[in-house]
Structure formats: C-alpha cells, structure tokens
Write the structure tokens for this entry.
Amino acid sequence: MEKDKGSVIGMQLATTRRRFMIGTGAVLAGGMLARPALAQSKELTIISNIGNADQRAVLQRLADEYSKASGVAVTINNMDHEAHKTAIRSYLVVGAPDVCFWFSGNRMKAFVTRGLFDDMSDLYEREGYKKVLGATTGALTVDGKQYGLPLGGLLWGMFYRRDVFEAKGWTAPATIEDLLALGEQAKSAGMVPVSMGTKEMWPAAGWFDHMNLRISGLEKHLALMDGKLAYTDASLKPVFDKWEELIKADLFTPNHTSSGWEQAAAALAQKKAALMDLGGFIKYGFPPEDVDKIAYAPFPVIDKSMPRYEDFSLNSVHIPKNGKNKENARDFLAYFYKPENLAAFLEAESAVPPRIDCPPSKDPLINAAVESMKTVVGTAQYYDRDTDPDMAQEGLKGFQEFMVKPERRDQILERLEGTRKRIFKG
Amino acid sequence: MSQFWRRHRHWLAPTLFILPGALLFGIVIILASVQTIWVSFFDWDSVGPMQWVGLSNYEQLAADPQFYVSLKNNVIWLVMFMLAPPLGLALALLLNQAIAGMKFLKSLFFVPLVLASVTVGVVFTWVYDPTFGLLSLIYGWFGATAPALLSDEHLVSFAVVIAALWPQIAFCLVLFLAGLNNLNEDLIGAGRVDGARGFAMLLHVVLPQLREVSFIALAVTVIGALRSFDMVAVMTSGGPFGSSSVLAYQMYEQSIFSYRFGYGAAIATVLFAIMAVFIAWYLRTLLRPERETA
C-alpha cells in the first residue's frame, strides 16, 4: 500500500511539473495558445478493461477507423481487468475518460445514483437502440433513463467435451437426478464429475445462483439479491439441502479452494473432469484446436414446475459524467455500436450480441447460447453483480466455506444474515 | 546574499537537505496516518459523502469474527517469524568460513532476497499445489498423498508463513554475515589466549559483539511479520474463506472490495496501534546506548 501512495504522489509531482512546463511553453509561444483549445474538441479518451488480446485488437481497429473518418484523435488506455474495478471509482471523480467499460445492472446503478455516469437516453433516441435491443435495455435503465450501452451477454451453464461424452455414451444431464447418476459414472471412469475451482470464490456463488433459480425462481432470488429476503429464510433450506447432497456425493473437485477457475477449466480440457459450470469464456482454458469440442447444456432442472431462469451477465460501455468530450463519445459509440462492428467485437469473447440485427456468428458457442436464450423466461446477472458489493464479498466467502464445510451451514447463514441487515438496514 | 548564507548556513544547509525527505515523509506517512485515523470515525465508500459514525466501526470490529481470525494469524506470523534471526545466525556462522566455493554457496543463499516477494509467493503456491506441486511429488515417492496445504483452514497460515520465512531468513543471514565481518580480532585473540573455543567462544566473545545486529534483525523481523500482506494476497487472497487473512489484508479487502473505507481505516488504526508498541520499544532500546555514550 505504501508503494501505491508513493506512485500517486509521484504522479502528482509529474503532472505539476508538466503543468509548469506547459505554462512556461505557453508564455514563450504566446500566440500558439489557441491551438490546444482547438485540439481538445477533437480528442477522445477511452479506458478499456479488456484482457483478451483479440478483442483489444478489434477495439483498436474500430477506434482507428473512427479516427480516420472523423479526424478525432482517439487514445485507448488499457487497464488490467481486476485493477480497473478499483481504479474506476477514483477516475470517474477525477480525471474521467470520455468512454469507459463497466458492467450493467447494480454495478452500473451504484455510479448512476452518485451522478458519475452520463444520461445516454438521447443517443438511444437518436440511433433507435430501443427497437434493436428489446428487453436488454432494462439492465441499463435507471428511473426510465439509459446510462450505458449493453455489450456481450454471458450465458452461464454446464459445459462439457462433446467427444468425451460421445466416447462414453453419456448425455448431458437434464435433471439433477441425471447429474447425480452421471457423477457416479464419471467417478467410476476416474474423472471428477464437476470441475470446480473456488480460489477466486465466485464460481461457488454461481453454483448457488443456479440452484436458487431452479428451486426458488427468479423473483425470490432477486429479492435475496436486493436484500429484501433473509438469508435465514425457510425458502433457502431446500437449496442448501440439495447442494449439501451434491457435495456429499463428491461431485466437485477435491481441494477446490486451491485452484482457480482457469485450472478447473483446464481439467475439463484435459478430460480429467466431465462437466463445468461457467460462461462461454471457458474456451480460454482450452487449446485452440479443441475449442470446437466444447458443448453447452443448461444447468440441470431441479423443480420441473419452475420456468427456465438463467444467469445472463451483461457487460456495458458508458460515458462518464465528468468526461470532456461527450459529443465525440456519442459519435464514437454510435460507430462502435453498428451491428457489424459490435458483432466483430463480441465474437472475440464468445458473447451473445445484445442487438437483434447483428450478423449471424460463426462461433458455435455463441450460436448455442443464442439458441438456448430463446427458451429462457427471465434472467439474473450473477451473484456478485446482482447484490451489493459489500454483501457479495461476504456471500462469496460464505458459499466457498459451505462447499468445504457443509456442516457449518447455520453458522454461515447467520453470518450472512447479519451482513445483510447491516448493509440493507433491516 | 552570500553574507546571509554564511551567517545562516549552519542550519540552512541541513534544513534544505532534509526538506524533500521530510516533506515526502510528512505527506505520505504522517498525513496519511492522521487521515486514516480520522476516516475510521466515518461511514464512507470512498466516492459518496462521509458520514460521522463515531466509534461504530470499532464496535463492529470487536464483534467481527473475521477480525479475531486475522489477529490470530498475525500472532502466528509474529511467533513463526521469530525463527528467522536464529536460523539466519546459524547459516551465517556456517557460511562465514574460508572454504573453497563458499562465495558461490553464499550467493545461492542470497537468491530469495533478489526475488520479489510476489515471485516467492507464486513459486510456493506451485510447490504446495496438490495436483502437480513439488510437495505432492515428494509425498508421491513415498506413496502418500500430500495435504492440500492452501485449502486447509488450520494449516494455510503456517504454509504461507513458511514461504515468507525463506526471504526473511536470507535477510537476517546477510545482516549477521556483515556483523561477523566486523568482529574485533583483538577480542577474539584475547579470548583464544584465555582458552575459549567452540561454543564458549561463540557465547561469550562473538555473540556479545553481534548484539546490535541481532537487535536490528529482530526489530525488522517483527515489523515484517506485522505488515505481512503481499504473500497472503498472492498465495491465498486470505482464503479459504478468510482463514489465512491478516489485519493488513483484511483492511485491503474491506476497503477495496467491500467499499468500506471507514471500516478498513479502523482496522488500519488497530494495526497501527499494535505496531506502535513495538516501534516505541525499538526506539527506546535504540536510543538508550546512544544516550549512554553521549
């Protein structure tokens, strides 16, 4: 932490020195003072959190094309995905870019209520986005106004290797009983039934999401996310009962807290595990030549009377309120958001395009998700996107602990309930 | 001008030289510390308005089970880190011999000092990995299954401390090697004349001369144990489920991930108070001999 502070001070010193130099230069150059003001209206700064090199290249290409057509100088500052999550809170207040990437839903709302994201309803109106986006608009809307554009959606579910399942004569589990039966077969074949890596904790919360959506349904799940339902509520009991049954049946990778999701995905790629609960980005755990072997199946049904609800997390792009070139930002986003450009951008991460008029994709994982989305009745985003970040931190920890020590269930739920009361004030 | 300078340089020159350092120290350390203590009385998410809550953060801290887990882990760190000075001394005595190839051996022992602690953390994470790690290979030779150290809530802290001990021992080793090079030959000669050798020589002639070095090694080790953060962050992120967290890491987690800056500041303040006790003791012992000689 001390090092961080040091570098911040260093940066401040550097900017004051730069300001001093600029000041001196301005005095010397006199008449040239008018130029920076002119140049400023022709600038655009983007902060990107994209880790995937292919996708970064697409963004750069679109920025270059836009720059050439409009004469606006575009600067893209790339940040590490995780570091960006903390940096955004300071840069939105001081030193905001003109365009930045973030996540829709509750995570966006946190900044909207603090007046840090610009109202983009005018752009929606101008480009007629509501018609091509449909229900997706809801995730970007606060009090009837839109504060961002949706990017790719990640549909969560079970992934497996098609070749392995064919060789063993298995079928993807449609119900939880199928999953338990498949678990026994996988174990006798020397494989881990469900690959799980909870070092980063969120995969455990995703599993909870999916079970809760299957058993309690969307409405109750969202009430829990909004802090309106107690963690000690009786409706959660069957969820944890079933989950405990799965844990006791040794369905999950042993010592899963030691490995991250990437290691868990690699286990699936190496045929050491049969299934894994993740999004389309699972392909990064696979060697390129094996990507076409990946197949998708929805999370197994638990209660047959429950309509199909899924986690569908939606990334998004925004215009910070404190940015300088809001008009350029709108123009750039309008270009970036053209169906063919957006499709090229999303193809790189196998995400589902939010626009209905995007050209059809060649990526089988995208097409499987698009196809599957047709039978989805309602969507949540993901545990740590749907609930308060403070609650999410404790929740993730609690679910990880439950997966290791299911016997501590009451203790964990009591603790989460305490946190919920503190955050949501009752 | 030059007359002014001549008249005042006895105090102006040192002041000017100290000024940049003092300024930086004032802003980065003192101002930041005071501000942290101030923030700990507020409910604040680092973006919105600050709300005065008095001692509420400290009350919550006292009721937070995670706080006691972190505190317990800090104690584990502190106690286990006490191994570093004696082990460093033992290695220094071993390496401080004029044998061919000793220089090469010494440089091998310095390696962990050169590595960034993040690197050490990552390497040890691999060593401990239950599927492909060195530890599981060694257990495999004996036909046993290695415990997944970083997944076991009771062992994980010890596993992390062992990783952190490696560079810490090397650090103490360097301090003691420097100390051994500065031994007074006359005293050793005198001791030999009086018939001291072996262990007696070490205990009564060599060790007393290493008193100051040992003191520095001990103090640095104590502070190193209390401010441990990087190893925990790299190896476990405080996990599984917070069982390897330490106060510094809990502060980071609460402030950055849970948006609770006031609460994080309260943890930092408690850690500061614990450290202040050691630092006060350190300064007292450090200043005492100086006062005696003055």
In short: Chain A is about 50% helix and 15% strand. Confidence is low (pLDDT under 50) at residues 1-40 of chain A. The CA atoms of residues 94 and 322 of chain A lie 8 Å apart.
